[in-house]
What does this fold into?
Amino acid sequence: MSESCFTSEFSPALLLEYLIVNNLLRVYPEFDETPGVKMPEKYQWPNPDGLYCKSYCPLHPELHPIVFALVDEICEVFESDAFHAGMDEVFCIGDEKCPRCAGRDKAELFAGEVNLICNHVALKNRRLWIWGDRLIDGKTTGMGMWEASMNK
Ligand SMILES: [Zn+2]
It folds into this structure.
């Protein structure tokens, strides 16, 4: 179990994912999937909210022009023909209190977001890379919440 977002699994892609999502939500708090859950001043895991890290709402109508501009800028600056979106830190998706996502299938929300980003980068002849953790059923495999998805 990890003590923070920066663990032995640290990688540049993980750092980039952390910085993008956390700074995105600082500038655009309306994109937060769980705005009622606040990041504590002193973060520690585990915590009463079960908050490992924040996620954006994949159905917010103003989100994707901003996310796509960030993705494009990162790819252009690094002259990359691929974009690694991480996606392994998506613990909060389809929150029951989100006015757009409540009641929706979390797997479909995740797949929809992956497809949107994949299609966007493909328009510029780039490939999308993601970690596979969230594509594995943690209960069926017995792998648990860190190596697989426990989202229902
Ligand atoms: Zn939502």
Summary: Residues 1-8 have pLDDT under 50 and may be disordered.
